[in-house]
Amino acid sequence: MTRDESAMEIIARVLMREGGVADVGDGAGVTRYGQTTAWLATYGFPAPTDAVMAAQNYRTWLVRTRLIGVCDYPDGFADGVVDWAVNSGHRPVIQELQRIFGLHVDGVFGPEVQARVDACDRPKMARLVLGSRLRFLGRLITGQPERQSRWAAGWMNRVASQVEALA
Q: Alpha-carbon distance 83 to 19, whole Å?
């Protein structure tokens, strides 16, 4: 399987979790397959009218952010990284990878991060990434409970399903 094929499999999982077009009341307005108006504007993408177009946007975004570099296999590690980046932005996830790898933390997926990704124990990294995401979500919820607690169950269910998929 090529990196691109693997990335598309991961994107398909993200699209299943994100659903279609909705305004969930989070202040971001209508999201299309997890893509907000602000996110689309940031990357210069057209608003997707279907899942195929949304997948194309995500694939281009993976290349631009260099997160495509975790997609050599459609495993729990790649799924954990990409799904977290879709929900919380790519920089916090890259920063966490840099912390885990003991690298300078700047939020840029550069050659040092890629070299560590290429050499890592992917099942172990999947567990570390999902654990880090849970801590991140916990800080987010407790930092602004009046705003964020309404999303807590959905976020935890999403990560729990990824943990269960590791088995």
A: 13
In sequence order, the β-bridge partners of residue 22 are 31
Report H helices in 102-151.
111-119, 122-143, 145-148
Q: What domains can you pick out in the chain, each with its CATH number?
A: 3-165 (1.20.141.10)
Radius of gyration of the chain (CA): 15
Return the structure tokens found at 76. 């729990």
* pTM exceeding the 0.70 threshold for the entire prediction: yes
Contacts of 114 (CB under 8 A, 6+ apart): 66, 69
Cβ atoms of residues 67 and 81 within 8 Å:
yes
Both structure tokens of 138:
């916990």
| Cβ pair 76, 166 in contact under 8 A | yes
Q: pLDDT for 119-155, tens place per residue?
A: 999 999 999 999 999 999 999 899 988 888 887 888 8
Task: Say if residues 107 and 95 touch (Cβ distance below 8 Å).
Answer: yes
Beta bridge partners of 69: none
Provide the token pair at 81.
């990284």
Residue 160 has a CB neighbour count (10 Å cut-off) of 12
